[in-house]
Each structure stands twice: as C-alpha cells, then as structure tokens.
Write a structure and sequence with these properties.
Length: 589
C-alpha cells in the first residue's frame, strides 16, 4: 500500500503534487515555503484543489514521467475516449545563461482518441485556506484572491471556456487545450503556442541535466529519478535543498509527529555534495556548498541545524488549527521549532561538508581565508560544547542527553579540521586539534560503549540502541573489522529491524513510542551490512526497499512496517539521497 500516489512537478522555485487521478492537491506559490494555494492533501474539504478529470465518473488512469524529466503525464481512459494531461513547471536556460523558472503550473491537455469530455475543478484556497478565496472572471483569465487577511492572488489562463472552467461544467475536448496557473499576471498573449514552447524548453532542460550523469549499470533508473527529485527540490535563487516538499504529513496516522520540512537541514550536506558531484552534477553540489558558507557564521554566532531557503535563521513554529490534517492527523504545523535546538553533531556535519567541498572545489574557491576562518570558528564551538548534553540527531524535544552519535560527530569535526589545516599548510593547529579529538574519542569509548553488552549505545549510560551509530564506520571513527563495530551493527540489526525495515530507535521519546520505519536508517543498515561483508543481505534489503516506492519510484520519509504505507513528508530528499549513496556503493558504475 503506497498511499502517496502522487507525482511531483517543480522547477527549483516551487512545486506541486499531482495525484494519480489528475488532481493538484498541494502547491505553494510563489516559492516552496510560501502559503499554499491548494492544500487538499492536508484537508480534503477545506484545503482546495485543482483537478482535471473526465466528465463521466467511470474512468481509469495511467501516470508516468517523460523519460529523463520532471514532466508528468497522466492518461485518462473512458468509454467515450481518452486524453492525456502533461503537467510541468517551466524552466530553461536563456541565451544569457540565466535560469528561468517562473512560479507557474502548466497543464497541457491532448485528446488521444474518441470524443472525451472533461471537467475542471479550480478551487484555490489561498493562504493555507485560513480565509475565504473568491474567483473573479476577467476577459482573458480567472483571478483568485483572498477576501480578508494577508492579500494573496493567482491567475488562471486557458483556451477552454472560462465560464465552464469556473463553474466546473463539462467541456468537449476536440482540440489541444491548456490551463496555466500563474502567480504573476502575464504580460503579452497567453496561448497554446506559448505553452508548447515552454514544454519543449522544459523537457530539453531536464534531459540535458540528466545527460551529465554517467549511467549506473545496476540501478540507473532509481538513481536518476532520485537525482531529479533532489534537483527539483534545490532552491534556484540560493542553492539550498529542501528536506521535503510538504509540511505535516504524519509519521503515524492520527498522531502528532507532524513537522514542516520545507527548510534546509545541513545535516545531509556532505553526503549531498559528494553524491551530486559523483554523479556529475557539479553545479548543484557547488551551489549547496556556497549556500552553507553563506549561512554559517564566521566567528562566534550560534550555528543552527537548519535554515530557511534564503538563509533565514528564525523559523518560528505555529499551528494551523483550522485544517484537519492529513487523514485527520493534527496539528498542521508551519515553521519548525527545531531551529533553536542544541545539536552538537552539527559542528562535525559542517566541517565534514566543508572538507568535502574543499576537496572538490579547492582550485575554484575564491576566498580560502574566509573558509579557514569558518573552520576555526566551528572548532571553537566544538571545544566549548562537546562535553555538554544536547537534543541529538533526532531532534528529541525533551531532556538533553549525552548522545553517543553527537560526540562522535564532534570527533569527526576535529578530524576534518586537521585535514583542512594540513591541506592549507596551517600545521601549527594540528597538534592542539588532534589532542582534543583524542579526548573525545577516549570519552566515547569510556561512556558510549557498553562493555557488558559489547555495543555502542544511544546515549551515555543508556542500554538503548540507535540507528545513528551505524554511521561510525563511514565517518572514519571505526574500521570495518573492529569487533566493536561489527557487534554494534549486528545488535542494531537484531534490535531495530522489523519486517525488513528499521526503527531509528525503539525507546520512548517525548511523543511516546516510535511506531514507523525510518527509510534513511534502513539505507544506513544496508551500507553497514555491506561494509562488514554481508553483501547478500544488503543487496536483498536494498531491492526490497526499492519496491516500497510509489508507482513513480518516489519515496517518503517513513513507512508502516506491516502495510508498507508511505508516511511522513513527501517526497523526502534524504531518502532519495540515501538511495543514491547506497546504490553507488552496491552497484557497479
């Protein structure tokens, strides 16, 4: 049971989720993090949608992406005929080299056979549907606008009869038709030729982008689709990459583990930079690296775990109490209070990312002195805070603890800082930083390793296991043949795997007991098993997870253990990034 039977379209400015039945149930304009125009995903009755379907009730659909693109095609089959809807958000490179990505959703409708009749449901509910939206008919377009509160408006252009579109009356489809939803009022004539040109430019853009990556012989299709998702979620103005396209899709139906993921977490930075560069997408990797350097404070300011798409620091969380939530899962949240948490692992994450970017872009880094200043500033944070408890990688909102993975990431930060210092010839820093790294390492072995159990535990003095500890080998903290590492992998596998999928941890947190599989952790286990030599189990587990994607190969954050229903925000960048990383480890290039 996949449940999230949606395709995603987008252009690096914003995106939309299109259901298998041709309904846009989630779209924010003008940007990813703007208030929603359609949010039926979060409230079927009040959220609003933009649906296109046959006039008759009995129909079936087929949905696919055009090869090597983020252009989505939905074919409708009825007794009276068939037609296709091609959905996309336009993007292309101009002759000047500038990237053009207007906040538009374009829907091209083509009759295929027979005499199909179609019905449009244009029901925008602007501003997260907090207040009423009215739709006014003009000579060349429909304009939707809020009637109170903050002013929001969008425009709908079409060569269909605008009266029928507004009322939802059936239209005979006897020629190609288009619907263009635009955040900005269009200048010049909007017609079919203009839409077709935008489609051809958009197809060419995505195909050219995909052509830069070498084809992986074993897992070419899932790698390419995952890379396309990551590119789509890369915010063009700054290079930031969203964690996901949505907010408040629950980790478990009916519960309150619902978060806004339309922000940029820097925890996955080094993996993103390395994976996209390895695929040949150097510009995506470099722009994300530059975004990190732009948002990370130079000297003594506080370092955050996440930032807004334009580098915003305050991401105040609030609830939208008027929305019922996905499948009744309340509350619906916008903003994310985790921005203010203390997570000491972030220092190591940043220095690992800076080291990755330094390795890849060393010859083209314009200001090495600034990069060096950032490096020394982060090291000062580690020296000042590594002994303190924190909220940990999973952003637990209760009492702070000494999480083992946070300590290891502090070690990683110093180890990477030593490498950067060596590369820059700043040798006088190596001895001091190496000494502190050895202190942290000794502290982890003394307090994070349970000698009686023979494994690394979630936090100091705790008997619980944590999937985050599966990263210790790939981070360089332990060798693959270290018996403490092998024992931790096997014990984690026994304790946290259920029906072939992984928990993050099983002990209670501030919201109760976790009850869904976290896809990222399943990929981490696959990598760990591969690295200790259990290749057969790793490959089988990977193939099983590939089968958990929806009909288009898209992955969410979580899965229900029993039904494999997708849960959590969707599509999830980290899940697709981990898929790429794991596929490149398992499959020949």
């Amino acid at each position: 049971m996949h449940d999230f039977e949606y395709g995603i379209i987008g252009n690096g400015r914003s995106c939309a989720l299109v259901s298998r039945q041709g309904s846009i149930d989630w779209c924010c304009l003008a940007d990813f993090d703007s208030p929603s125009v359609f949010a039926a995903l979060l409230d079927d009755a009040k959220g609003g949608r933009f649906a296109l379907r046959p006039a008759e009730d009995d129909f079936s659909t087929e949905q696919r992406y055009l090869p090597h693109t983020n252009v989505l095609v939905t074919r409708f089959l009825t007794a009276s005929g068939a037609f296709e809807v091609t959905d996309f958000m336009p993007c292309h490179r101009a002759a000047s080299g500038d990237y053009k990505c207007p906040p538009d959703v374009m829907r091209l409708i083509r009759p295929v056979e027979g005499q199909p009749r179609i019905r449009v449901q244009f029901d925008p509910r602007l501003g997260y549907a907090e207040h009423a939206t009215r739709v006014l008919r003009h000579a060349k377009y429909l304009k939707a606008e809020t009637v109170e509160g903050a002013h929001e408006s969008v425009y709908l252009y079409s060569n269909l009869d605008l009266g029928s579109v507004q009322s939802g009356e059936p239209c005979q489809l006897d020629r190609e038709a288009y619907l263009v939803l635009a955040y900005d009022q269009k200048i010049g004539q909007m017609d079919l030729e203009r839409v077709v040109l935008a489609l051809e430019r958009t197809k060419l853009y995505w195909m050219n982008w995909c052509a830069r990556a070498p084809r992986n012989r074993a897992y070419g299709d899932p790698i390419e689709r995952s890379a396309l998702v990551l590119k789509l979620l890369s915010y063009q103005p700054t290079g930031a990459i969203l964690a996901a396209a949505t907010t408040s899709l629950p980790e478990k139906i009916g519960e309150e583990r619902n978060w806004d993921y339309r922000f940029c977490w820097i925890r996955d930075a080094s993996m993103t930079i390395r994976a996209m560069a390895r695929l040949g997408h150097w510009r995506v990797a470099r722009r994300f690296f530059e975004f990190l350097l732009d948002v990370v404070p130079y000297k003594n300011d506080r370092i955050q775990i996440m930032y807004g798409l334009r580098g915003q620091k305050e991401l105040t969380e609030r609830t939208l109490d008027w929305l019922d939530g996905y499948a009744g899962s309340r509350p619906v949240r916008i903003g994310n209070a985790a921005w203010s948490q203390q997570q000491n692992d972030i220092y190591g994450v940043l220095l690992d990312a800076i080291h990755a970017g330094f390795q890849l872009f060393h010859d083209d880094t314009p200001d090495l002195e600034a990069l060096w200043t950032v490096t020394r500033g982060i090291v000062r944070h580690i020296e000042a805070h590594w002994r303190e408890p924190d909220n940990g990688i999973w952003e637990i909102r209760g009492e702070r603890r000494h999480f083992t993975s946070s300590k290891v990431m502090c070690w990683v930060g110093l180890e990477r800082a030593v490498r950067i210092a060596t590369s820059l010839g700043m040798h006088e820093y190596r001895e001091t930083w190496t000494h502190v790294a050895e202190q942290i390492r000794a502290d982890v072995f003394a307090h994070g390793f349970d000698a009686k159990l023979g494994v690394f535990t979630q936090s100091y003095g705790s008997p619980h296991l944590d999937a985050a500890n599966l990263l210790f080998h790939r981070l360089g903290f332990l060798q693959s043949d270290d018996p403490r590492w092998t024992a931790t992998v096997r014990a984690t596998q026994r304790a946290l795997v259920r029906d072939g999928l992984m928990y993050r941890y099983r002990n209670d947190d501030d919201f109760g007991s976790p009850d869904s599989a976290f896809l990222l952790c399943s990929f981490w286990l696959i990598q760990a098993l591969f690295n200790i030599g259990d290749v057969a189990t790793a490959r089988q587990m990977f193939e099983d997870i590939l089968g958990c994607g929806n009909h288009l190969g898209l992955l969410s954050e979580d899965l229900d253990f029993t039904t494999r229903r997708q849960l959590g925000n969707f599509p999830q960048a980290y899940s697709h990034l981990a898929l790429i990383d794991t596929a490149l480890l398992l499959g020949p290039e």
